[in-house]
Amino acid sequence: MFMADIAGVRVLYTGDYSREEDCHLCAVEILQFSLYFNSEKMAKTIRRLAEKTPKVGETVSGFLVKKAFTYQIMTLDDLHVFSQLSIENISQRITIAYSGAFGVLKHRLKQIFESVESLPDEESEGPAFHVYERLTVKYESEKHISLHWRSDPISDMVSDSVIISILLILIFITSYC
């Protein structure tokens, strides 16, 4: 649909490219109207957040849940009660082929990262260490190591950088041996 100016007369062209004849309306027949939309959004606080009325300028923290055209702010504990959403923890594990010495790996990662701490043997099966208390590197066998972490944005970044560091160490070991 578009407006055309033919011989000084504005005509609205409504061609729909079907088998029906096209319809032309003169500008006199076209009604003009305006629509106004309110851009304000309102969110209701629920349960624990609604117990205390916030003061003007006070920050309210919680989860914003949009359901149809309504917005609700709620705490993590209320999320499963008032919505069909649930929170789950995801534990991730990756096994990497690594045939070098585990002590060399730990030493190289200590040079790169500030916090690399050994785990007691009772706590893990075999040698292992933590990187930033978020990622656990375990010695699985002579040819494999595994990385374990609970998924969140920071732990995922730490694990990505440790994986890249391990792969770079492997490249360095294989190119000079």
What does this structure look like?
The chain starts with a strand and ends with a helix. The protein has helices at residues 79-82, 102-112, 153-176, and strands at 2-6, 9-14, 23-26, 43-45, 63-67, 70-74, 91-97, 116-118, 128-131, 135-141, 144-150. A 5-stranded antiparallel sheet has the order 7-11-10-9-8, covered by helices on one side. A 3-stranded antiparallel sheet has the order 1-2-3, with no helix packed on it. It contains 3 helices and 11 strands; from the N terminus they run E-E-E-E-E-E-H-E-H-E-E-E-E-H. The longest helix is centred in the last third of the chain and has 24 residues, at 153-176. It is α+β, with helices and mostly antiparallel strands. Helix 2 packs across helix 3 (153-176). The model has no long low-confidence stretch (mean pLDDT 81).
